[in-house]
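Researcher: We're reviewing a set of sequences before deciding which ones to prioritize for further study. For each one, I'd like a predicted 3D structure that I can look through quickly. This is Cysteine desulfurase IscS. If possible, include the structure in token form so it fits the rest of the review sheet.
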Amino acid sequence: MVYLDYAAAAPVLPEVYEAMLPYFTEHWGNPSSIHELGEKAREALEKARAQVADLIGAAPEEIIFTSCGTEANNFALKGIAWAHENRGKHIIISSIEHFSIMHCAKTLERWGFEVTRLPVDRYGMVNPADVEKALRPDTILVSVMHANNEIGTIQPIAEIGRICRERNVLFHTDAVATAGLIPVNVEELNVDLLTLSANTFYGPKGAAALYIRKGVRIQPLLDGGIQERGLRAGTENVPAIVGMGVAAAIAKKEMNSRIQHLQALRDRLIEELPKRIPDTILLGHPHQRLPNNVSVAIEYVEGESMLLFMDMAGIKISSGSACVSRSLKVSHVMLAMGISAATAQGSLVFTLGIHNTEKDVDQVLEVLPPVVQRLREMSPLYHKAKHAQASKQPSGGGQGVQR
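Model: Here's the predicted structure for Cysteine desulfurase IscS, in token form for your review sheet.
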């Protein structure tokens, strides 16, 4: 099997798995309990908090553990909205955010808040000048994701953060796609809140965190106990959080070598796919992109059909965000970039991981072209387009031009 869907899920590292095991069987106490078993769990929780904080240049007390990135994003938006609504009810997000931000923003609109959605360019990039223009006296929060998991484009977060700080507006970034993969430092990025998730850096599902800069006022999302400094009620998932901490420490240690490995595989796919499959368009920014992301649109065929054929050949890839892949809807990210719905339907997303090899890339480059050719032969859209192109060719022959 060749697995190239690491943005959807990544295997837990053996060291992470081993570190988690004692907290299922030996040190299974509740970290809120005031006895020895509880203290063991509490110590592990605080060690993990320090490890996660160290990954992003934060202080341990600025890390609040959550169950997933979606919860952390909801906590950031709703928690800030509730805590600061006396100052204003205007929030700014980009038009390519994850649905945990997009849908949360819609909910806030139903509750009386006003949301501005920033446009992006053809690479999916937010212009910091657009953020500055959108700010108003009643703006209380800006949220722009660090990188988009579908197209890989990395946003100018530090510049956007600087603008927000100068205007005294809180700034959140969803860094689920970047934290643990590329260097992320909350001070350098000028962020007040940041979401990260263990699964991105080979930790377990069910563990994530929200960084909240010291002094930022926020309302809890859940009603209940006083866990996580009273900001996130509910007993902590200690085994998963321990795993997140170990994964964070390993990610920081191995980050440079991982990036080097991933970039080499990514660049080969980006270079070879258009050569071997005509009418293939690279999506996202050509340079400011994640080291493990290759996103393309292959014209005249549907992404879902390609996925099925590739799956039968043992190659696991995606056609977009895993969170909505079964809905078969056209990606809102690609529509925001100005890509037509027909072209967006032919999108494929390859997200590489540390276990991938050059041999995996070779297999993709060998299997995908005949799959596309077969599907195009069955596609009326493809034949119509080719017929239209041929009719425009000057009589007397001549060589066609491949893109």
